[in-house]
């Protein structure tokens, strides 16, 4: 197996960690954590921890510091959309809709940086999108109204902003240096989060939400690091994102298995609904295989 193929194991692992993080964050939201609590905890942890990467960073050209700052802004927007989607929907729906990010990644790679993409990556992006149609549980007649619901709109907004972020990271990270880029990017994200969500914060984290929010923040940080390294070292952000799209499968399987334990909404969904979501998520997995083979 080539080095590029081995690097795709990082987004595959990040996909699993993301779904586990999303399930715990959803449980924290259900326990009473509001948008400010979630954004502060989930973003400040990597902002602090990733500063340790300065220990592995070489000399930095500070004239390039604007690049991780711009990536931090788009990433911050994606985070806000993601947590709004989780608040208004189920993990087994919002996460596969986030899989459309691969379409926007391919689009931004081609338009912004004029990067040539192989046909199999466009086919993989199409498979991810078709899978989303099944996951949402919509028919062709009800698809448009379903995609206009708040959870789908927020998830699509996250897909667009994260798609742009991934392309920016891939094209800028190695020029700045991966350790310095990640440290600066998430340091800037932490500053943005403090500026936006700290003012007006009322009350502490509900006792029932402390453990799931803490677990979600740790898992979320680990998957961010895996994706940052993969995007910096792999030749194609689109390929990395299609593999990362396997989280659509994990979101259905794990949400279904852990629904009662985490008191998730999936516990109330009919078997036919979850089977249809699983079928749609398998289309996304097919796209993953298309990239790996």
Notable characteristics:
globular; mainly alpha; 293 residues
Draw up the topology in text.
Layout: H1 3-7, H2 9-30, H3 35-49, H4 66-88, H5 91-98, H6 101-112, H7 119-135, H8 143-147, H9 150-176, H10 178-197, H11 207-233, H12 237-244, H13 247-262, H14 271-292
Helix pairs in contact: 2-11, 2-12, 2-13, 3-10, 3-11, 4-9, 4-10, 5-7, 5-9, 5-13, 6-9, 6-12, 7-14, 9-10, 9-11, 12-14, 13-14
What does this structure look like?
This protein is mostly helical and 293 residues long. It has one domain. The protein is 77% helix and 0% strand. The protein is built from 14 helices and no strands. The protein has helices at 3-7, 9-30, 35-49, 66-88, 91-98, 101-112, 119-135, 143-147, 150-176, 178-197, 207-233, 237-244, 247-262, 271-292.
Compact description:
The protein is mainly α. 77% of the residues lie in helices and 0% in strands.
**How far is the first residue's CA from the last residue's CA?**
10 Å
Low-confidence regions: none
Number of domains: 1
What is the overall silhouette? Answer: globular
Mean pLDDT rating: 80
Q: What is the count of β-strands?
A: 0
What percent of residues are in strands?
A: under 5%
The level of helicity is: over 70%
Whole-number radius of gyration? 18 Å
Largest sheet: none
Please, how many helices? 14
Pattern of helices and strands? HHHHHHHHHHHHHH
